[in-house]
Amino acid sequence: MPWLAPLGAIVGGTCGYLLSAFTQRTYPLPTGGMPIVAMWPTGIIMYELTMLGAILTTIVAFLVSAQLPHYGKHVYDPEVTNGKILVGVADPDPNCRGEIEKHLHASGAAQVKEFSKE
Hints:
This protein is mainly α and 118 residues long. It has 2 domains: 4-65, no CATH class; 73-110, no CATH class. It has helices at residues 4-26, 39-65, 97-106. Helix 1 (4-26) packs antiparallel against helix 2 (39-65).
């Protein structure tokens, strides 16, 4: 992931230059012998789009790596809102369920629930 932000910055800076240069060449103003594409105003647009590209790429990379939004089924119990603590085991081996319950009760679990996969 560390290389994605600089890549987004490079793409953003390139797009900033192309946007600015294209606009200045499309609508040329009389410049009195100076170049049509002025580098100082172009540099400002390049800087802004470089930062925008880096920020947007970082945000998208965070969302993709965190798998957000996640529309799948979540392990949740409404008792959590009443102050209880949820320890969830997703898709355990059917042969180990008894041992898991034994360890949970030995650790002080007040209640062990099993939810269906639906």
